[in-house]
Amino acid sequence: MSKKLMIDFLGYTLASPLVLPAGIMGISSGSLARAANCGAGLLTTKSLSLKPRKGHNNPVTACFEGGMINAMGLCNPGIKEGLEEVRDFKKRIESPVIASVFGTSPEEFYELASYVNKSKADFIELNLSCPNVLDEFGVPLSASKDSVYKIVKSVKSVSERPVIAKLSPNVLSIKEIAMAAQNAGADALSMINSLGPGMLIDIKLKRPVLANKFGGVSGPCLKPVAQKLIYEASSCVKIPIIGMGGVISGKDVIEIKMAGATLAGIGAGVFYRGIEIFKKVNREIVKFLNEAGYENIGEVKRIK
Ligand SMILES: Cc1cc2nc3c(=O)[nH]c(=O)nc-3n(C[C@H](O)[C@H](O)[C@H](O)COP(=O)(O)O)c2cc1C
Hints:
Layout lengths: L6 E3 L2 E3 L3 E3 L8 H9 L4 E3 L16 E4 L2 E4 L8 H14 L4 E5 L4 H12 L5 E5 L6 H4 L7 H12 L6 E4 L7 H10 L4 E4 L3 E5 L1 E2 L4 E2 L5 E5 L4 H12 L6 E3 L6 H10 L3 E3 L3 H5 L3 H16 L12
Parallel strand pairs: 3-4, 3-16, 4-7, 7-8, 8-9, 9-10, 10-15, 15-16
Antiparallel strand pairs: 1-2, 5-6, 6-14, 11-14, 12-13
Flavin mononucleotide (FMN) binds next to strand 6.
């Protein structure tokens, strides 16, 4: 991989600014390894809860012109088994891993962080923002600055890993939410989670495409929303941001960095261009850097 792609993030030097976001490749050590081998510099697990979750019934994903919609329902094998996969992965590959966790209260997040302390994961990410479990859990936690503050504070009191708060786009003031996370001690933000929920209709069957009816919206249609929210959040916080939402090309990475992100996640893009997307986008970034006269990716800064 080109040295021009190397970038510092919370004390780690990553080989690439590209991140595999939570939930995209499942949870197995093999799928994390495939993303690492294809050029992702940082890998995130599926969001893990204290107990295993079956998730929603199929169909759980569907594509449309501008993106995709999903209602996975946070299916996962539970924190213990999920972190075993991270252990297996680390036996083979040194790339840093973010353990994404999902709870419903500061106490649950505290317990999840205690598990992550004993694991091989390098970072913990708090999924405060899943839009496709509204029936079960109500409005995502990151809709409230008080909830965000309490949860991050609780995790910071126990975590031996840097803490990343994953934020929702579905909020009135992203600045307030981002500040609440930073004030509670978050080391970084990850944004944005899927938008919505939204809905797609099958006109032949005359019913919603997803069995759950509604699901989170990801992919290219999210790009302008992600850039605007990252631009706003980065105007008021000092902590780094893992930016995501519609990144599928090298140009998108440069744009999201100019919006204020340090790293760039590629989620739905994996469904568009295959797992090789990490390799392809790394190449596209280097081409851009060479043509535009940048020495390395770190020189691409937030616009005013
Ligand atoms: C199939 C699928 C599953 C996802 N699962 C999770 C998850 O478990 N936890 C989470 O924080 N985000 C989850 N997300 C959201 C992504 O991590 C990402 O924030 C979002 O899709 C926006 O990025 P993108 O446009 O590059 O996909 C999921 C997204 C998709 C498409």
